[in-house]
Write a structure and sequence with these properties.
By secondary structure, this protein is α+β, with helices and mostly antiparallel strands. The protein folds into four domains: 91 residues; 101 residues, Beta-Lactamase (2-Layer Sandwich); 80 residues, Helix Hairpins (Orthogonal Bundle), CATH 1.10.287; 148 residues, 2-Layer Sandwich (Heat Shock Protein 90), CATH 3.30.565. It has 13 helices and eleven strands. It has a five-stranded mixed β-sheet with strand order 6-8-9-11-10. Strands 1-4-3-2 form a four-stranded antiparallel β-sheet, with helices on both faces. The chain has a two-stranded antiparallel ribbon with strand order 5-7. A hairpin with a 2-residue loop joins strand 8 and strand 9. The longest helix is centred in the middle third of the chain and has 50 residues. The chain is rod-shaped and about 145 Å long. The two termini are 36 Å apart. The N terminus is likely disordered.
């Protein structure tokens, strides 16, 4: 895992990138220079010597000046056979020491060595020539002419002859490498910039194409952006749905109040009854607004302690009293004497009351709602299970959304506003806990976990 993270790290990529660029620049220069310098001729035809050409020429000149005359033929033959270099040692009359035939081009470059001029260079179609003044071992002056083989490629010849051209080639190669590395590194950032602009323009479906796992920090950033975009899209969709639901819930009582007001203005005999109906609608509006505000509170101070056992016993007794008419029972089972948790006001009371009443409402007549409290590691788990029909698996999380009703045709009088479980869910989360739901063989079980 650690090896994968190191291999996929953008820091390592940048570090190795610049390192490789430096190595490429220096290496290309050194290798090209070493390759060219090890060639005794403009192009390698045989095994290269151990010394660069400058040193090769200098050593050859040194050998000519410090080797007895009887050993010079062996040195010249070695240069010919090993490096394909022809060597002439000319006297003042233009005769070769080894009595070789002296071509005109060799004599021409040798004649350039006049006065204090000790070196001459000439280009020929058969290959470049270098002439150098030497003093042999016996002290006699000679003009040494070396003819190198002609390079097969003109570009190689230009590189051999021009150090600046070799440097320019190294710069171009390193530039291409740097461009490729920079493009590879910044492609993801460019995609992220474009996606951010589209998201800012209101396109909430914007996503960046990225693998699900692995990659470097830019891939992780792209995945985080996609997660943020999905959450933002979900939040905006929920806000629109909430606004639509609130508008729908407010429109009905307001419409009834408007009708009642119109009738009251027309008929004085019905005015008192209509005013009473308007008062009931006003109370419903106040209750709805209070519940909406409860679902939107994000943080509350947990400034008091509550015993869950005592609280649930009270709520179960109240629910039993409410369910007596339909033979519904609510029982509490626990092995704990007390379960102390931090709370704020009567927030937990409202939350568990909503959950228990919801279970009581959906459990059939002559059935039982079971409430259980157990002690888990660091928290208390409260489960409320009814004997109702349960909820579709895809809707298990949606039951905690505002205004969600399992039966979409259920009226607010029969099914409430659809805010009870939403209030409970937000309250449990504010306590640092979690509220989940699952289907059982008998019905629906809502599980609340609250830290001790």
């Amino acid at each position: 895992m650690a090896v994968t993270r190191v291999r996929g790290s953008i820091f390592i990529k940048i570090f190795l990138g610049f390192w490789l660029v430096s190595i490429a620049v220096l290496g290309s220069w050194l290798l090209a220079d070493s390759y060219i310098e090890t060639l005794p001729a403009p192009e390698q035809q045989h095994r290269p010597p151990q010394d660069p050409p400058q040193r090769f020429v200098l050593r050859l000149i040194y050998a000519m000046q410090n080797t007895p005359a009887e050993q010079l033929p062996a040195i010249i033959e070695k240069a010919k056979s090993k490096h394909d270099i022809n060597v002439w040692l000319l006297d003042r009359q233009g005769r070769d020491l080894l009595e070789q035939r002296v071509p005109a081009k060799v004599a021409t470059v040798a004649n350039q060595l006049r006065g204090r001029k000790r070196r001459a260079f000439a280009r020929h179609r058969e290959g470049p020539l270098i002439a150098h003044s030497v003093n042999l071992f016996d002290g006699s002056p000679r003009r040494m002419v070396m003819m190198f083989p002609k390079p097969n490629h003109q570009i190689i010849g230009l590189l051999i002859a021009n150090n600046w051209l070799r440097l320019l080639l190294a710069i171009l190669v390193s530039g291409l490498i740097c461009y490729a590395l920079s493009r590879m590194t910044t492609n993801r950032l460019r995609d992220l910039r474009h996606a951010s602009r589209k998201l800012a323009d209101g396109d909430l479906h914007t996503r960046i194409h990225v693998r699900d796992h692995g990659g470097d920090e830019t891939d992780e950033l792209a995945r985080d952006f996609n997660t943020m975009a999905r959450q933002l899209e979900t939040r905006m969709r929920e806000q629109k749905q909430l606004l639509s639901d609130v508008s729908h819930e407010l429109r009905s009582p307001l419409a009834r109040m408007r009708v009642a007001l119109a009738l009251a203005m027309e008929d004085e005999h019905l005015r008192l009854d209509l005013l009473g109906r308007m008062d009931n609608e006003t109370v419903r509006l106040e209750d709805l607004i209070a519940q909406l505000l409860s679902t939107q509170e994000n943080s509350l101070p947990l400034d008091k302690h509550v015993d869950l056992i005592a609280l649930l016993y009270q709520l179960c007794d109240d629910a039993c009293f409410e369910g007596n008419q339909t033979a519904k029972k609510v029982t509490l089972s626990t092995g704990l004497a007390e379960a102390i948790v931090a709370s704020s006001g009567d927030l937990l009371h409202k939350s568990f009351e909503n959950i228990i009443r919801n279970a009581l409402q959906h459990t059939p007549e002559e059935s039982e709602v079971r409430v259980q409290v157990i002690d888990t590691a660091g928290s208390y788990q409260v489960s409320i299970e009814d004997c109702g029909p349960g909820v579709k698996e895809q809707d298990l999380q949606r039951i905690f959304d505002e205004f969600y009703r399992v039966d979409s045709a259920r009226s607010r009088d029969a099914g409430g506003y659809g805010l009870g479980l939403s209030i409970a869910h937000r309250a449990i989360v504010q306590h640092g806990g979690a509220l989940t739901a699952e289907n059982t063989r008998k019905g629906l079980k809502v599980i609340a976990r609250i830290p001790k």
